Structure prediction request, 438 residues.
Amino acid sequence: VKRDPDQPEFHQAVREVLETISPVFDRHPAMAELLPLITEPERVIQFRVPWRDRNGNLQVNRGYRVQMNSALGPYKGGLRFHPSVNLSILKFLAFEQVFKNSLTTLPMGGGKGGANFDPKGKSDLEVMAFCQSFMTELSRHIGQFTDVPAGDIGVGGREIGFMFGQYKKVRNEFVGVLTGKGIEYGGSLIRPEATGYGLVYFVQEMLATKSSSLKGKTVLVSGSGNVAQYATEKVTQLGGKVVTLSDSSGFIYDKDGIDAEKLAFVMDLKNVKRGRIEEYAKKYRSATFEAKDASKAHNPLWAVKADVALPCATQNEVMEEDAKNLVAGGVQVVGEGANMPCSIQATNTLLANKVLFAPGKASNAGGVACSGLEMSQNSLRLSWTREDVDSRLHNIMKEIHHAAYSTAEEYGAPGNYVVGSNIAGFLKVARAMNQQGA
Ligand code: NDP
Prediction:
């Protein structure tokens, strides 16, 4: 805290890990000396991103890449374009990414990057100008064997395409330097679906430990972007009913559930028209829209009665009050689709009330796992079928669940996936660092 006093999100992410991995040091005291290393990025790059808007005016944003840890492989992690982006948020994301990537079983280190650029309301040409300028500088610091970025909030297929094109121009190399690419130029089938699908596969495994399933369950989803959309699709395919979605303006509640046809409307609204979720309630009579009220200490979305909750929007969107509302509404499972959507107090409230709780670094690892599979396909110069990638993804999520579940038992915290994921993720990175002469 003394070293970086202005980085609350980073402190929160570090604290959550440190508070849960202490049993490791009872068994392996020497590993404790790695803590100051693992909490310090190997490298942080910060740069200016100048571009011209539609009126020819010069705009300047701030770009970053946090290269956190390369013990297990090249740095890997998404790029976020959102006005809130700063070093605290990117360091928290990069820190979590290290353990998440470790859990995937694939050879990937951890990193994260982005810019305080707001793609909302920008034309395609403005987004292209920004992406090209951003990549002109970033291209000096990344590479297929060094650092392989992907998408995150505000960075989807369109942005990855513009950045890949610029990397190719600057470096004169066609290589798998970014993941989440279009299918025509080296992308992997199932990558867009992977985080949402993977989250639901993980929740399925959790429910199976209680001899239960998603069939007939009522599910709350927040967000309406990439992760939220495909989590909704998979829940529906498995017989569950998703009744909420949101964006930064508010949330919709559809008592009849968001079926495949309604989800197609949301995908067109969000991915093509780039509209607001409020439109959903205008189109479907069964739904209501409630605008976000920043003066409220809680988000009414989490007060809707449900069996399962999947926060898929952003960090700290479920606070203690929300967790209490979820418990009062009878929630049995909370699976984090977003990164760190639950505050530490919210997580503790859920755990204290015996809610099955999946931390994002385990339950949303499907996206980066599939990115790892995209890297493998690029290196092989091959593309695998949809079924092949989906079944690999499904197996990886089962393995992550098994690692988290069994490690929690081994370290005396049965059923606590936070403890299990943090310890399992940490041990592999720590051993690799030691073997490489940390
Ligand atoms: P998208 O940009 O596709 O969607 C983000 C969604 O969250 C939008 O509905 C957005 O609403 C909403 N949102 C963003 N910021 C806020 C905010 N401050 N308050 C309320 N709502 C907000 O991003 P993704 O779906 O890719 O990412 C969602 C989360 O999942 C993030 O935490 C990300 O780090 C995490 N994640 C993503 C992975 C991926 O593969 N994409 C992999 C693993 C984790 P609006 O449109 O109004 O901004």
